[in-house]
Amino acid sequence: MTDTDLVGPRSLHWRYGGDNRVLLLLVRAGLLQLMHPGLGAGVREHSDFFGEPWERIVRSVPEIQGVTFDWPEAEATAKRITGYHHTVKGTDEQGRRYHALDPGTYFWAHATIFETMVRAMELFERPFTEAEKERLYQETLAGYRLYGVSMRDVPRDWPAFEAYLDHMCREELEITPVAEGLMGFVDHPPETMPGVPAPLYRLGRKPMGRLLWWVSVGTLHPALRERIGQTWTARDERRLRLFAKVVKAVWTVLPHRLRYSPRSRAAMRRVAAAA
């Protein structure tokens, strides 16, 4: 099977990658990234993430989704994203050198987004079969190759990817200064959010922050929960499963424009117009 067979409108990524329910695990994806020493240092020294977090997310998420939904021009989108990271390098607070385009660092950023999408869909939609997970993983590798970054040490298949995730969570991730900042951020979200009326956002920002953190904690690797000092009980797990059922029920009655991201809806319209 070639990469051409793994991308575009027939792919599973096309079906699930633009699902807005993934946004409920966005804090989780951010925490996984910021706990990586190289990624955390890059964000700390080369961005104003905590000064304008929502603005950064609004800019970044559509571009990342474009690697799936800008088909057949997705390679140009991927190369543009890679270009943003050429100058993101330096030395972290422990004296360790980092570069955003280091193969291990760059793949971890991609891996967290992919794995969070899979986790969200299994929580809010349905469990995937092993064959579907393998298909999804091969699709994400096809997308990753578009970035033009070394494939060195990239797991070859889904079982190897699961082992890689387990190793990263148990052995490599740490509480970096920016990860610690994110943990505090959920209790004190920004005062405004792009596209949301200020009075409405102020009313819901703290409950929303607590909810997103709770869902994140519940879907983390147990080793990471322990590392960040969070507990998760059987009662929490039952509540999470109930919450997931509510999300799924609400999602089915939402209009299409609220269920899928703008980038994915634009791609669907292009395909429909060309049919």
3D architecture notes:
- It is globular and about 50 Å long.
- The chain has helices at residues 12-16, 26-34, 37-46, 53-69, 74-84, 103-124, 130-145, 158-172, 177-185, 198-219, 222-227, 234-253, 256-259, 262-274, and strands at 89-91, 97-99.
- The chain has one domain (3-274).
- α2 (26-34) packs across α10.
- By secondary structure, it is mainly alpha-helical.
- It has a two-stranded antiparallel ribbon with strand order 1-2.
- This is ER-bound oxygenase mpaB/mpaB'/Rubber oxygenase catalytic domain-containing protein.
- Residues 14-249 form the ER-bound oxygenase mpaB/mpaB'/Rubber oxygenase catalytic domain.
- GO terms for molecular function: oxidoreductase activity.
- Pfam families: MPAB_Lcp_cat (PF09995).
List the helices and strands and how they pair.
Blueprint (H helix, E strand, L loop, with lengths): L11 H5 L9 H9 L2 H10 L6 H17 L4 H11 L4 E3 L5 E3 L3 H22 L5 H16 L12 H15 L4 H9 L12 H22 L2 H6 L6 H20 L2 H4 L2 H13 L1
Antiparallel strand pairs: 1-2
> In terms of quaternary structure, what is this?
single chain
* H/E series: HHHHHEEHHHHHHHHH
- Cα separation of the termini: 24 Å
- How many domains make up the coordinates? 1
Any low-confidence stretches, pLDDT <50, length ≥5? none
Q: Please state roughly what percent of the residues sit in beta strands, choosing from under 5%, 5-15%, 15-25%, 25-35%, 35-45% or over 45%.
A: under 5%
What characteristic shape results from the CA principal axes?
Answer: globular
Class from secondary-structure proportions: mainly alpha
The spatial strand order of the largest sheet comes to: 1-2
Overall number of strands: 2
Radius of gyration over all CA atoms, rounded: 18 Å
- Compute the average pLDDT: 91
Residue share in helices?
A: 55-70%
InterPro entries: MPAB/Lcp_cat_dom
Protein name: ER-bound oxygenase mpaB/mpaB'/Rubber oxygenase catalytic domain-containing protein
Domain ER-bound oxygenase mpaB/mpaB'/Rubber oxygenase catalytic: 14-249
Pfam families: MPAB_Lcp_cat (PF09995)
